[in-house]
From TrEMBL:
InterPro entries to which the protein is assigned, alphabetical: GK/Ca_channel_bsu, Guanylate_kin-like_dom, Guanylate_kinase, Guanylate_kinase_CS, P-loop_NTPase
Organism expressing this protein natively: Oceanobacillus bengalensis
NCBIfam families: guanyl_kin
Protein's recorded name: Guanylate kinase
Gene field: gmk
GO molecular function: ATP binding; GMP kinase activity
Keywords: ATP-binding, Cytoplasm, Kinase, Nucleotide-binding, Transferase
Major subcellular site: cytoplasm
Span of the signal peptide: none
Domain of life: Bacteria
Length: 204
């Protein structure tokens, strides 16, 4: 029996490209993927569960974990820390389960430094005009903020070279199908399978 470790998949891309929508649709299908649960210092909200919605930590605990390099990435938003715990990801992968992380570009670059064996997927807008429309249609941002986000998106698109795959999010279902194909092909990669077979042959 081939004892295969799971793979960490990172879906990333500019703000407004539809990362969350693609992830939700992917998880609505029958999938063995495990969603990477983030860690946060913000207070638990009614209806949330520790270890399901987030891993909740005090500021002190979180800062200790940063020092011990126990986070694959982290960021601070409005006085609260958010991050991806290394231990949870590594333990889940060791069980042979794939872990899926949906994250901003800056966070993905941190993960790449800390966990380069991950598979990095860049979700790309069909065009910058389309990205602008998506940000504007959210109706939550002022014109200045929209321009800032677009400027940021241009910068993030230039970071595409750091990724293994690029998926254009023209239609959600198409994008999801491409992500599924990437997951499948990664499991079929010769070097992953060769390692497992070597172990079997050595054990004979």
């Amino acid at each position: 029996m081939i004892d295969e470790k799971g793979i960490l998949f990172i879906l990333s891309g500019p703000s407004g490209v539809g990362k969350g929508t693609v992830r939700k649709r992917l998880f609505e299908k029958a999938t063995d993927l495990q969603y990477s649960i983030s860690m946060t210092t913000r207070a638990m909200r009614p209806g949330e569960t520790d270890g399901v919605d987030y891993f909740y930590k005090s500021k002190e605990e979180f800062e200790n974990l940063i020092e011990q390099n126990e986070l694959l990435e982290y960021a601070k938003y409005v006085d609260n820390y958010y991050g991806t715990p290394r231990k949870y990801v590594e333990e889940t992968l060791a069980k042979g389960l794939d872990v899926f992380l949906e994250i901003e570009v800056q966070g993905a670059m941190q993960v790449k430094d800390n966990f380069p064996e991950g598979v990095f997927i860049f979700l790309f807008p069909p065009s910058l005009d389309e990205l602008k429309n998506r940000i504007v249609n959210r109706g939550t941002e002022t014109e200045d903020l929209v321009l800032n986000r677009l400027k940021e998106a241009r910068k993030e698109i230039e970071m595409m070279d750091a990724y293994d795959y690029v998926v254009v999010n023209d239609q959600v279902d198409h994008a999801v199908a491409k992500v599924e194909a990437i997951i499948q092909s990664e499991h079929l990669k010769r070097e992953r399978i060769a390692k497992q077979y070597k172990k079997i042959l050595e054990a004979e």
